[in-house]
Amino acid sequence: MLPWSIEFAGRLEELAFESEALRGNRLGDPHVRPLWVYLPPGYDDEADRRYPAVYVIQGYTGQLDMWRNRTAFRKTVPELFDQLFARREAPPCVIVFVDTWTSVGGSQFVDSPGTGRYHTYLCDELVPFVDAGYRTLPAREHRGIAGKSSGGYGAALTAMLRPDVFGGFASHAGGGLFEVSIRPFFRVAVRELRERYGGTFEGFFDDFRSRPAFTRETDIHLLLQYGFAAAYSADADGTVRLPYDLQTAEVIPDLWQRWLEWDYPTLVPRHANALRSMRAIYVDSGTRDEWYLDLTALWLERELTNLRVPDLHVELFDTTHAMIEYRYPIGLRYLAERLS
User: Fold this and answer.
1) β-strands 94-98, 53-57 pairing
2) In angstroms, how far is the first alpha carbon of the chain from the final one?
C-alpha cells in the first residue's frame, strides 16, 4: 500500500544463518546473522527453472534491516529490484542480501583477527547454503556480487579473490585507492583525537557509545579508520594497530603497507587473470563524491581497460556519495543480462 509499502511481484524470504566462521570472533559480535533471499516473479510457478544469483552487500555501518529504510518519495532497494523484474526489464535473478555488520561498523569483507572471518562466511558458507536451498544456477558464470561504498569495494575484492565463486561484480561508489580516498582524512582524525579524546581511540569510543551516534561530523572518520585498521592491520592476537602516528598523522610504513596490500594498485595486477575472467564488471560513482571515489572509478577504468577485461562499464553521474540507491537496479540489470 503506497507510500508505506508495495505488493511484491516476487517475494522476500527472511532467514537466520548460523555461521561457524563468525563464531567466537574477536569483537564478540553475533555469529547468527539475518539473511534475506529475494525470489523473482514466477519462481514458484516454474518448478524446474533455475536462476542466476546476485549477492548484495552493504557499505560501512550497514546492517541488513537498513534495506527497509525509506527516503521520502523513493522506493527502497528491494522494491526497486522487484520493480525491475516485474516490468521484465532484466532477466530474473535470485537476490541474496548479506549481513556483514560489526560493532566497529564493518568488516571490509576480509578474514581478519581483528573483526572475524567475513570472507569465509560469505564465500564458503552462504554461497553453498543458498545453492542448496534455492534453484540457482550453481556455477560462477551465473553468480555475481554487488554493493555500494565499502560494499562496492567488497564486491570487487571478493570477485578478485574468488573467481571460482563469482563471475561478475557491480561497484557503486566503491571504495579503494586509499592514498586518495582515505589517507587525507587521517589528519582530520588525529586533530579530533587530540582536541576531544585525549589522543586515543579508547577516549573516542567511550564518548561515541555514550551518545547518539554520528552527532559529530568527525564520527564517521574515526569509526571508519579504526574499522579499516581492525580489518587490515590487526595483529594475530586481534590487537588493532592504526597505520599512522596519533600525534602527527604521519603514516607508519610497515602498518600502512599492510593496508596497501588490500588496495587496488596491489590487488588488480596480482589478480589480473581473475579480472579478465569476469563476465561482467560495472563501476559507477558520483562526480561530487565526498570521498573522491569518482577518482577511484576512473583509476579502475584505466587499469581494467589496460588489462583488456572483456566486459567493462564505467559511468560517472552528477551527485554525491549519498542517496544513490536508484543506481542499484542499473548495476543489477547489467549483471543479470550477462550472468543469465
Assistant:
1) parallel
2) 32
Which sequence spans correspond to the domains of the chain? 11-176+263-339, 180-260
270: Cβ–Cβ under 8 A, 6 or more apart, which residues? none
pLDDT range class, residue 85, cuts 50, 70, 90: very high
Mean pLDDT of all residues belonging to the chain: 97
CA 237 from centroid of its chain's CA atoms:
25
The burial class, CB within 10 Å (0-12 / 13-18 / 19+), for 134 is: middle
Query: Which among 330, 314, 321 is positioned nearest to 148, based on CA atoms?
Result: 321
pLDDT at residue 80 is higher than 90: yes
Give the architecture-level CATH label for domain 11-176+263-339: 3-Layer(aba) Sandwich (3.40)
Q: What is the rounded CA–CA span in Å between residue 207 and residue 216? A: 11
Q: For residue 5, what pLDDT is reported?
A: 78
Distance from C-alpha of 168 to C-alpha of 100, rounded to nearest angstrom: 20
| 8 A C-beta contact, residue 144 and residue 256 | no
Look up cell 554520528; give the residue. Answer: 214
For residue 3, what pLDDT band results from cuts at 50, 70 and 90? confident
Residue among 104, 95, 106 at smallest CA distance from 157 = 106
Q: Cα separations (Å) of 322 from 85, 221, 234, 326?
A: 25, 16, 29, 11
Q: Hey, CA dihedral for 124, 129, 130, 134, is it positive or negative?
A: positive
Crossing angle of helices 328-339 and 77-86, in 10° steps, is 50
Distance CA(340)–CA(336), nearest Å, equals 6
Check: CB of residue 107 under 8 Å from CB of residue 231.
Answer: yes
DSSP 117-135: EHHHIIIIIIHHHHHHHS-
Backbone region of residue 283 per phi and psi (left: phi > 0; alpha: psi in -120 to 50; beta: other values): beta
The stretches of 63-218 forming alpha helices (DSSP H) are 77-86, 118-120, 127-133, 150-161, 178-181, 186-196, 201-208
